[in-house]
Design goal:
The complex is a heterotrimer of chains A (about 525), B (about 325) and C (about 280). Chain A has about 525 residues and is α+β, with helices and mostly antiparallel strands. Chain A has three domains: about 150 residues, Dipeptide-binding Protein, Domain 1 (Dipeptide-binding Protein, domain 1), CATH 3.90.76.10; about 150 residues, D-Maltodextrin-Binding Protein, domain 2 (3-Layer(aba) Sandwich); about 210 residues, Roll (Dipeptide-binding Protein, domain 3), CATH 3.10.105.10. Chain A is about 25% helix and about 20% strand. In chain A, the strands form five sheets. Chain A has a seven-stranded mixed beta sheet, with helices on one face. Chain A is globular. Chain B is mostly helical. In chain B, about 75% of the residues lie in helices and about 5% in strands. Chain C is globular, with a radius of gyration of 22 Å. The chains are: A alpha+beta (about 525), B mainly alpha (about 325), C mainly alpha (about 280). Chains A and C meet through α5, α6, α8, α10 and β17 of A and loops of C.
Chain lengths: ~525, ~325, ~280
């Protein structure tokens, strides 16, 4: 029995986590299986007509790229940074023991290998021995211990990374091995070991600039202007990065970004709207992929009129998601209905047929009549004004809902008001926004439990709670997936929220650049980007 | 002297009032800076720790006087939002010091445009007896004054940036990296700032000159046989310039206090843009100091204009 | 008919041109409350970004909505909002300016400091405060901009009252035992109208620009309602693809403001001619 369990567990980990570690098709991963594989030095790689270590023929080393980013950095401390806009940049400077790759699976980074005990409580990491910090020092077990303890709160009682709070201890076994003990078995914890490794003691003491192990090292940061990084010549992945310097430039808004792109003062920008992409397609390469954002009209299940499941369902029926997709993102969005990223193929269940993707006005009116709103219903949707796409979607949805006698008023609020009043204060009827997810299946599902403190839509369903808890506790992949799917089905049937779509992430890139990789999470990996010869 | 003391006391009182108002404003508007910084996924301990670090666990009155006390000592505090490096937040003084030159350069350039174009234009207009020219100038200046600054910014960007490609929209270069590059970019936002002000100044100067030319001393000058040219330039202009100086002073104050919209349209990292983003991120220390700065500039410029007036024209009594 | 012709002959060109420009705009704005060529909100995927044509005079926007209809609605909103801002700020200006100017003293000192403070206070922060207390919406934009603009009227009215408070006719009225309120608003106030009207027309322009500016920054009129400033800010992202989208509301603002300026210039010249 015990043996069987362990095999299942390993199978799960292989699927969920180890995928990349065992070697994959992408570039530097090979060196993780053969860390001391001696290849030619980087300098000799740029010979004509030959492939570089990553198999690219037309690549050129060197060059400087300006990447436009939307948000200013919230912290240069990788453990304290929480904004998605900051993490997307810091991905280039910092790495964890493990790292997410472009398929969303985990690959080894600072660690070269790891294993999990049968009971799921002990994680043992073997460190790669050629990893150096940007200050030239080798990464030691001491650094790993410090970093994990600092992030999990074991160091001073203040946890900086909430998912690591279950850690009980971090122990140095020998100079290459670190063992982590956790209080409760949770398969999804493995994703938290992407937490950045920083030099021991650097967090509080010296560290006049951020030091990590990533493909680029920090050069300078100026509030409101941006951040500059330069190539890390000692990066452990052979042949990466290509570029000498990357400047992350903060542009104040999508409109300004468009002007800057037109003026060619940025080389790469990734939050284009559909019509901006249309406008730029002659001057730039336009690439598109699903983002990690779930967009929906979130309904407050605790207040009228949405405390009646029939009204919630009526809204779901009355929405024409195809049209919203068409208008706002040019049909490049992925319509979805459940609280899970469709990219999480093992767990996501496609439930678009429940309410249909077009508008079903008759059904909506019928449900409203049953709920006692035969003459129509009225509510206010509060939308964060800084997200142009959400505002536009709200305009489209409000117009559609009119057909079903639903009067939807739009109220724009600034982002901090949204956070405090709507997300924390739950003072709203409906809000149209997007939630950025990570690669754990529990990311959204966990917060719709009745008593969860992040259950900002006040969803309350006992069956859902049971299904979620079973899913979270399960150490068996199939079983886990089954319960997650069950939870999603309940959620959608109850119309907890009117999900709309996963908007695409559309980038414009300088025509001379290649090698850009989309990730299922919100990062800008500049290490594989190169100038064409 | 008594006048100076009185003005100084007034300045201090206004600054105090403004700082209290700004503080109150921050008590009222929703949005918790801790949530704003940490986002929605932070641990409660981390939130609590940050609240303590920022001193937000203290009651509002204590916080205000603590802040005011350190400002009086010359310590403007640290930004809540911008970090200098991994362990240290950006001091407000440094943050503003970094943005101020951009706004000042923009102000200087705009003023040069205004002075170089508006003054000759105003004189020409006042002296012209051509009716068509008068109507053209009248309509032209009225139109220029009717264009909202953000629309003008968009038009300038579209015309010079996208159609003519004379500059790269958004391609601001830091004055530290390349001073002349920076100036050549700033020319375009400066044009947007300057156009309506040129129109206003030219109108103002013309009216002022027309009023002056009706005065006794002008008639005296003519009767003494001075040429029309001489009268226009040496007598009328000098006297007519005085109200114009006041007017220019107001314009300087306005631009130095930050051309919020123009900085936004041209993505210039100046004071105006910093103010907007600091308000939206609830970066209280930065906003407070910026508001004090703006108040200070406005009041001091008005004061200097007032003094200048008295120096030039002793007829104004020192009440 | 003859009378009308005679009336027209008496007016100067500035006044007439201004009257025609503003009249046209205001009429379109009022008309929009009852009728627009197309619905201002209904969307059409097939008609996105159509250039100006006979069917759509000003073209269509990113949702395929008729820009001319939305500009009409925008004029209505903008003109009403701006007029109310002027009424509030000028009303407050007269009341406060009259009292402080006439009586002076410590109250005057305090109120002047407050107006200084409001003058220096960023209007966006003030608007955020008002909106967070009262909620967002047109009426609160009117209210907050009313506060923002009041100090300039206070200053003008105050200085006029200071100038006139010791004038002969006021002294005589005082000696005759006329009540203070009557002196303020019956004796002095009519004498400042000419100065006041000029600042009202300027203030009206400033209010239009400020309302547009507020909407441009996302505070103010809420979508899907159209306001000229909001349309302009939405359009900025489509400048290369659909320049008419930005030009239509932008030029409309210029049209209205210019119309009012000419109107006030005309009035000013007429007044000057009378003297």
């Amino acid at each position: 029995m015990k043996k069987k369990f362990s095999i299942t567990l390993m199978a799960l980990l292989l699927v969920a986590a180890l995928g990349g570690c065992a070697g994959g098709k992408s570039s530097g991963n090979e060196s993780s299986t053969a860390p001391d594989a001696t290849q030619g030095s980087q300098a000799s790689v740029s010979g004509q007509g030959t492939e570089d270590p990553n198999g690219n023929k037309d690549s050129k080393y060197g060059g400087k790229v300006v990447v436009g980013v939307q948000q200013d950095i919230d912290s240069l401390d990788p453990h304290k940074a929480t904004a998605a806009g900051t993490k997307e940049i810091l991905f280039n400077i910092f790495e964890g023991l493990l790292k997410v790759n472009e398929n969303g699976s985990l690959i080894c980074a600072v660690a070269s290998d790891y294993s999990v005990s049968e009971d799921g409580l002990t994680y043992t990491f073997t460190l790669r021995d050629n990893v150096k910090f940007h200050n030239g020092n080798k990464v030691t077990a001491e650094d790993v211990k410090y970093s994990l303890e600092r992030a999990s709160g074991l160091l001073d009682g203040t946890a900086l990374v909430s998912s690591l709070t279950t850690l009980k201890s971090v122990d140095i076994v020998d100079e290459h091995t670190v063992q982590v003990t956790t209080g409760s078995a949770n398969l999804e914890l493995i994703y938290s070991f992407t937490t950045a490794i920083i030099p021991a003691g650097s967090g509080e003491a010296e560290g006049s600039n951020p030091i990590g192990t990533g493909p680029f090292s920090f050069v300078s940061y100026k509030p409101q202007e941006g951040l500059v990084v330069k190539k890390n010549p000692d990066y452990w992945q052979e042949g990466l990065p290509y570029l000498d310097e990357v400047q992350f430039k903060i542009v104040s808004g999508a409109d300004t970004a468009l002007l800057e792109l037109k003026g060619h003062s940025i080389d790469l920008y990734s939050y284009l709207t559909d019509s901006q992409a249309e406008e730029l397609k002659n001057d730039y390469q336009i690439l598109s992929a699903p983002s990690d954002v779930l967009q929906g009209m979130f309904l407050n299940n605790a207040v009228a009129p949405f405390n009646d499941v029939r009204v919630r369902q009526a809204v779901c029926y009355a929405m024409d998601r195809d049209l919203a997709n068409q208008f706002v993102v040019g049909g490049n969005g992925t319509i979805m209905s459940a609280p899970m990223l469709p990219a999480m193929k093992d767990y996501y269940v496609e439930l678009n047929d429940v309410y249909g993707t077009g508008a079903n006005v008759e059904k909506a009116k019928q449900l409203l009549a049953e709920a006692g709103y035969a003459d129509g219903v009225s509510f206010t949707v509060r939308v964060p004004s800084n997200y142009e796409a959400h505002v536009q979607t709200a305009e489209v949805v409000a117009e559609q809902l009119k057909d079903a006698n639903i009067d939807c008023k739009i109220e724009l609020v600034d982002w901090n008001t949204w956070l405090e009043d709507i997300y924390k204060g739950r003072n709203y009827q409906a809000t149209l926004c997007g939630i950025t997810c990570d690669m754990t299946p529990s990311y959204l599902t966990v917060r719709f439990q009745t008593d969860h403190k992040k259950n900002f839509i006040n969803f309350a369903n006992a069956d859902y709670d049971v299904a979620y808890q079973k899913a979270a506790a399960s150490l068996n992949l199939e079983e886990k997936a089954k319960y997650y799917k069950q939870a999603q089905e309940i959620f959608v049937k109850e119309a907890g929220t009117a999900f709309i779509q996963v908007p695409p992430i559309t980038i414009a890139m300088n025509k001379n650049l290649s090698g850009y990789k989309f990730y299922p999470i919100y990062v800008q990996d500049m290490s594989t980007v190169y100038f064409n010869k | 002297m008594k006048y100076l003391v009185k003005k100084f006391v007034t300045l201090i009182m206004t600054l105090f009032l403004v700082s209290v108002l700004a503080f109150l404003a921050f008590q009222i508007i929703p949005g918790d800076v801790v949530t704003s910084i940490l986002g929605t996924e932070a641990t409660p301990e981390r939130e609590e720790q940050l609240r303590q670090e920022l001193g937000l666990d203290k009651p509002p009155v204590v916080r205000y006087f603590r802040w005011a006390g350190s400002v009086l000592k010359g310590d403007f505090g640290d930004s809540y939002r911008y970090s200098k490096n991994m362990n240290q937040m950006m001091p407000v003084a440094e943050l503003i010091g970094d943005k101020l030159p951009v706004t000042l350069l923009l102000a200087a350039l705009s003023m040069i445009f205004i002075a170089v174009i508006a003054i000759p234009l105003g004189v020409l207009w006042a002296r012209s007896k051509n009716k068509v020219f008068d109507v053209m100038m009248n309509m032209g200046t009225q139109t220029a004054m009717a264009v909202p600054s953000f629309f003008l910014g968009v038009l300038v960007t579209y015309l010079f940036g996208i159609l003519l490609k004379w500059f790269a929209p958004g391609g601001y270069i830091s004055y530290k990296e390349d001073f002349w590059g920076c100036i050549s970019y700033l020319v375009f936002p400066a044009i947007s700032v300057a156009i309506p002000k040129i129109a206003m100044t030219a109108r103002f100067l013309r009216n002022s000159m027309l009023t002056e030319s009706g005065s006794d001393y002008v008639r005296t000058a003519y009767s003494k046989g001075a040429s029309e040219r001489r009268v226009a330039y040496f007598h009328v202009l000098r006297n007519a310039m005085m109200p114009v100086v006041t007017f220019l002073g107001m314009i300087i104050a306005e631009i130095v206090a930050g051309s919020i919209v123009v900085e936004q349209v041209f993505s210039l990292p100046g004071i105006g843009k910093l103010l907007i983003s600091s308000i939206s991120t609830r970066d209280f220390p930065v906003v407070e100091i910026l508001i004090l700065y703006i108040t200070f500039v406005v009041i001091v410029v008005y004061f200097l204009v007032d003094v200048l007036y008295r120096v030039i024209d002793p007829r104004i009594s020192n009440k | 008919m003859k009378k009308v012709g005679a009336w027209f002959k008496k007016q100067n060109a500035y006044f007439l041109v201004g009257l025609v420009m503003t009249g046209l705009a205001v009429m379109l704005g009022i008309l929009s409350f009852f009728w627009t060529p197309f619905s201002t909100t209904s969307m059409s995927a097939a008609e996105r970004f159509h250039g100006p044509s006979l069917r759509h005079l000003f073209g269509t926007d990113n949702f395929g909505r008729d820009i001319f209809s939305r500009v009409m609605q925008g004029i209505g909103t903008t003109v009403i909002v701006s007029s109310l801002i002027v009424v509030i700020s000028a009303g407050a200006g007269i009341l406060i300016g009259a009292i402080t100017g006439y009586f002076g003293g410590i109250l005057d000192e305090i109120i002047m400091r407050i107006t200084d403070a409001i003058n220096a206070f960023p209007s966006i922060l003030l608007a955020l405060v008002v909106i967070s207390i009262l909620g967002s919406g047109k009426q609160n934009v009117i209210f907050s901009l009313g506060i923002v603009f009041a100090p300039s009227y206070v200053r003008i009215v105050r200085s006029e009252f200071i100038r006139l408070r010791d004038a002969d006719f006021v002294c005589r009225a005082r000696l005759m035992g006329v009540k203070k309120l009557r002196i303020l608003f019956v004796h002095i106030l009519p004498n400042i109208w000419s100065v006041f009207w000029v600042s009202v027309t300027i203030g009206f322009n400033n209010a239009i620009l400020a309302e547009s500016g507020m909407s441009y920054l996302g505070i103010g009129v809420q979508p899907p309602d159209a306001s000229l400033g909001k349309m302009l800010s939405d359009a900025q992202g489509y400048l290369g693809r659909a320049p008419w989208y930005a030009l239509a509301p932008g030029l409309t603002i210029v049209w209205i403001v210019l119309g009012f300026s000419l109107l006030s210039e005309g009035i000013r010249r007429k007044e000057a001619g009378k003297r």
